[in-house]
Amino acid sequence: MSSFWGNQLHISIFGESHGKGIGVVVDSPPPGIKLDIDAIRAFMLRRAPGRTPWSTPRKEEDTPEILSGFYHECTTGTPLTAVIRNSDTHSSDYGNLVQVPRPGHGDLTGSIRYKGFNDIRGGGHFSGRLTAPLCFAGAVSLQILEKQGIQIYARIKEIAGIEDVPLDPARPPMQELSQLRLKSFPTLDDSAGSSMIDAVEKARMELDSVGGIVECFITGLPAGIGDPMFGGLEPRLASMLYAIPAVKALSFGSGFDICRRRGSENNDSPFYSDEGGQRHITYKTNHSGGVDGGISNGMPVVFQLGIKPTPSISLEQDSIRLSDKTDAKLVIKGRHDPCIVPRAVPVAEAAAAIVILDSLMGSGWFGGRNA
Amino acid sequence: MSSFWGNQLHISIFGESHGKGIGVVVDSPPPGIKLDIDAIRAFMLRRAPGRTPWSTPRKEEDTPEILSGFYHECTTGTPLTAVIRNSDTHSSDYGNLVQVPRPGHGDLTGSIRYKGFNDIRGGGHFSGRLTAPLCFAGAVSLQILEKQGIQIYARIKEIAGIEDVPLDPARPPMQELSQLRLKSFPTLDDSAGSSMIDAVEKARMELDSVGGIVECFITGLPAGIGDPMFGGLEPRLASMLYAIPAVKALSFGSGFDICRRRGSENNDSPFYSDEGGQRHITYKTNHSGGVDGGISNGMPVVFQLGIKPTPSISLEQDSIRLSDKTDAKLVIKGRHDPCIVPRAVPVAEAAAAIVILDSLMGSGWFGGRNA
Amino acid sequence: MSSFWGNQLHISIFGESHGKGIGVVVDSPPPGIKLDIDAIRAFMLRRAPGRTPWSTPRKEEDTPEILSGFYHECTTGTPLTAVIRNSDTHSSDYGNLVQVPRPGHGDLTGSIRYKGFNDIRGGGHFSGRLTAPLCFAGAVSLQILEKQGIQIYARIKEIAGIEDVPLDPARPPMQELSQLRLKSFPTLDDSAGSSMIDAVEKARMELDSVGGIVECFITGLPAGIGDPMFGGLEPRLASMLYAIPAVKALSFGSGFDICRRRGSENNDSPFYSDEGGQRHITYKTNHSGGVDGGISNGMPVVFQLGIKPTPSISLEQDSIRLSDKTDAKLVIKGRHDPCIVPRAVPVAEAAAAIVILDSLMGSGWFGGRNA
Amino acid sequence: MSSFWGNQLHISIFGESHGKGIGVVVDSPPPGIKLDIDAIRAFMLRRAPGRTPWSTPRKEEDTPEILSGFYHECTTGTPLTAVIRNSDTHSSDYGNLVQVPRPGHGDLTGSIRYKGFNDIRGGGHFSGRLTAPLCFAGAVSLQILEKQGIQIYARIKEIAGIEDVPLDPARPPMQELSQLRLKSFPTLDDSAGSSMIDAVEKARMELDSVGGIVECFITGLPAGIGDPMFGGLEPRLASMLYAIPAVKALSFGSGFDICRRRGSENNDSPFYSDEGGQRHITYKTNHSGGVDGGISNGMPVVFQLGIKPTPSISLEQDSIRLSDKTDAKLVIKGRHDPCIVPRAVPVAEAAAAIVILDSLMGSGWFGGRNA
């Protein structure tokens, strides 16, 4: 009981890194939504490995086969299922037991949890590869949201301590951010991006890895979506974002900075604007990240995800040998990313899209008397 | 659909700040657990208002009346319910509509969400007062966990930029932390605490407020509790912690710092220890906050909660008047805390306890063949 | 984890028969629905004991106190909570253990399940008294549904083998059925009702009890509500109706009779009708009970509930004495209904109303773009 | 939100009758359970079409491909997924709209629910074919239960009014019932079975269909499994059994017969037995079907499922043409079973097994301190 999520839009993710395949059941998107399969594939390619120097050379086509819920190019309203076959697996038989668990991974904890029966090849069900079906579900959700005027874009905010340009959470440049989907290294400031790439490459050469921060912006969400307490947008987003491997920190709006502010500085005051022709409520600042009392206030929903440095590194590490209960040295041979942050960018967008779509559906957005 | 949470241990919270009462149904703790009602009350008093200069002078006895699930001093195994009557409410009739919403609160978003029908007196269901029943459920959970050797202590880590002593997440001083329950201002370093109190008092005199960070430590949790993906300890803790009003950031272990580290620095390596007589696996460091792959690794589970400055301040603020769609000035008259952080300390412990108990129950901890 | 139910409308029931009180949290009805509290009380009185010769003489006012979610005579949209105090309890201390469990009750199974810690006085959380908060939630749901043109009426179909008039599930006489709410013994045929009362009275005089069947009709539900598979109206109704104590059988439409029919007799054929001015789809027959593929077809939703004879009887019965593991004779002294069927009529309506409201909310009925 | 079910063992079913494939995610069986794949296939073949004169000639191999959660012949503890490819589909393009809906099917209600976008070929997601993945999940659950000493066998109790031998729910002949798995027409009384086959054949020749009743027996379940109210075994079994297409009635133990009994006749009295060497509680009768207060009492859990006659018949039927809003005649050309009851027998066993396994897991059966 671990790998499903959702209230109105329910996803169930399955698979292991080196098993036959991975996939997701999405139960169920609203019916009659035309899906652009090429756009879904393009979205998933942003996450796929093997395309850049800073990602693992494992090559996976990651082509989702849609098994159900899609007919005449539209969602049917019944469960939408996609399966991705694993192909480029290099798992000389690991046997059935972890011998020397990799630090920073779920090797040891998973082995304890499952009494040694889980498939530990390539991380098994704990592998970052399981974000591929999450991206499928997210790409579908994004397309549905875009038809409702809701847009979600993320970027690399920071890698190895090098920061992209700071952005005002009240006025994110969505047009520029949208262009990042075309870049393999999605920063707004190319020179910062270039420095980050250098830092990643340096870490790789030194058989090490680096971490960073992804920042995500959601615009077009009207005020009034979400619920108080456990149904709030923050707890619901967090319940999914923290399921992304390597995420160890999450903040909204101005994040931990607000802890050092005074209320008079931090409060976002509403005002009436006539911009666009119709009098409406808006805010000058957006320290809250677009959510008050768990409910959207009409401003961009903004969050930052702290991503740890890839735990799989080529440097020799200390670990243990379970079979004879002794300490041991570990050199990881497999393929791995020296920095997972660029590939986490589409995953953050995907996760956010699923949560927002679920919240919209929970508010009856796609329903009504003729449902 | 907002105010319930849980898989195996299910809580349902209800009430409004100025209504008849607030409370919680806990469905259901394991049967036959002897509860110390005085200790529950003492725990709840740590959160209760009106006891210190830095909390709202609203005085509430906050005495929970247990309506069900408790018999012969023990849990029965069927739903445990507590109701707390509201007494010291000063709600000259607000009418049924928000006129000038308070910035940083759920006044405006709640009003949009509920079409103006929610009870907005004192924040209604959005009020921080709803953490009182959460503390009841948490105090019960804590007592159950303590009998299993699991301890949960939180502290003020930082207020207004002033920091308490840094702690190694691998070796938190649980004995000292446990003594903080007796202090009205729970910092380890009294002189830092004193500076924080000064900063809070200064903010109060200036009709303003300050924020801060709470840090929480869970020890005694064995390795192997939790699940991969959405069932992980981090997403599950986050799904509850972000429901606490004023929480805007959350991190585990070394938090956002890990984003600037290399993998070789950040990975926690396991080793065998014979300390205590029995060979067991432990770790030198605990940057991960005790969770790998969503599952506990036997080290302390450690997290930091970023708390925003209390949005209710006495300084005049900009807002809007909804009735005539004009901008307006707002001076909040009610009673409020210049800093909510000290009262958030027991709330963090309570929330963590509920999540950990639910996770233990989900792992079959209290069950077995004779269940 | 036992006493909560629901997807979009979530109810959490608590309490024990002889504890301080019982109640329910309803999280949450749509906001802004004006509730008629007198009508709720009148509805609940139909279930309340002590009003007729065929019900237990235990007198309970059963007045619900609404603690939250109700403001200015309307639902707020946040959790609606009602508590009913237990008053007329005659529980000379039972001690903490079942000694001689009552056959046909949860005394023994509950004691095993909860290791002897459950409150067994008067049946504790297993008591039929727990249907009082269900009726509160149901009465609220019924009022909301009635404003949407949906009506739910049940009747006694049969007691002790004596049947009320058979009704065509395609054309139930809702006007006549609505009048049954005013009768303490709700049958359409007064003479059948009179015979049933005689049979109940005869059983009571002979220190015994009788069972029967309740039939319930839901009209005004448009076609298209519900889902395939586990989200179907039948599984969802069944998941609640089988939670009513003493229910041991449930059927829809023509019930078990259809098992003996041919498809050509049993299929309900649609046709177009111009009755009422607008061309619409309807059906001549309604063997299916208004549900095809789990989804309403616009015809009345009809079901029958088989209620067992009250297990508490005054006749001496065989049982066991747990303390010394011997067989024992049991004479039940307490107060009990010789026939629970009349009081089950409003409970069936209440349960059905909650499920239908949840299903409507799940279809986005109360939502829409401005939600 | 329709096709997933479960608390501790969670299943998510997907697919359409004539789409690429159908399947199920089971999240997750306990780890380390050795599965006999041949036995799973054999179990599923009992449900598969095309093997007997009374089932549709559609031939489907129905071979499940296990994509995840199975490694070294054992469950891993992470999601177990099986996909069944659709092969023998004869769907000359139906277009995207139901034109003349089949009476008794979800064609019309599904079309309304999904605004015409659902895949209606062969019934789509509403097809009885979706019970194939349910049987996969059930076959796995059965193997796990059998290792715990729990057995589940169903039989044809009645077809077309012809009854198999009556069985005492207190003492079902499990040995004989187990042999029914080898029979294509699972009745205990071969002569009754033969008459039933004749009745089915007669209906088929007359282009019609017949219904019947399946009865299921669960033995070996210890007392104390289940919960009061909505967590009871009856509501939980019902929530799954009513999801089986064509089920319109369900009863436990002595079913609707108990409605005509007196309490003194119907109550099952416990007594102490020394049979088998150890003093234990048992019952002479089992009118309750092994469940008191929602919780197992140690006697066999027994239920009856009322199955309607197959709605797809070859006789001309009345229906409507949606395109021009006129009444129309319908002759169904496709392949269909003249009686679905024999194929419902393994489906009932499968559904029961999933529910019982989920309930055992919820009671912590597979857990404990070393989990």
Automatic annotation (TrEMBL), chains A, B, C, D:
Q: Which GO terms describe its molecular function?
A: chorismate synthase activity; FMN binding
| Cofactor info, note text | Reduced FMN (FMNH(2)).
Lyase among the record's keywords?
yes
**Pfam families the record matches:** Chorismate_synt
Q: Name one GO biological process term.
A: amino acid biosynthetic process
Keywords, alphabetical: Amino-acid biosynthesis, Aromatic amino acid biosynthesis, FAD, Flavoprotein, FMN, Lyase, NADP
The source's superkingdom equals Bacteria
Q: Which residues take part in binding FMN?
A: H125, F126, S127, G293, K308, P309, T310, P311, S312, R335
Task: List, alphabetically, the GO terms of the cellular component aspect.
Answer: cytosol
UniProt: NADP(+) binding residues: R47
Q: What is its EC number?
A: 4.2.3.5
Q: In which pathway does it act?
A: Metabolic intermediate biosynthesis; chorismate biosynthesis; chorismate from D-erythrose 4-phosphate and phosphoenolpyruvate: step 7/7
| Cofactor(s) needed | FMNH2
> Its biological function?
This reaction introduces a second double bond into the aromatic ring system.
Q: Which family does it belong to?
A: Belongs to the chorismate synthase family.
Q: How does this polypeptide assemble, per the annotation?
A: Homotetramer.
Q: Which NCBIfam families is this protein grouped with?
A: aroC (TIGR00033), PRK05382.1 (NF003793)
- Which named protein is this? Chorismate synthase
Give the organism the record lists.
Answer: Parasporobacterium paucivorans DSM 15970
Q: Which gene encodes it?
A: aroC
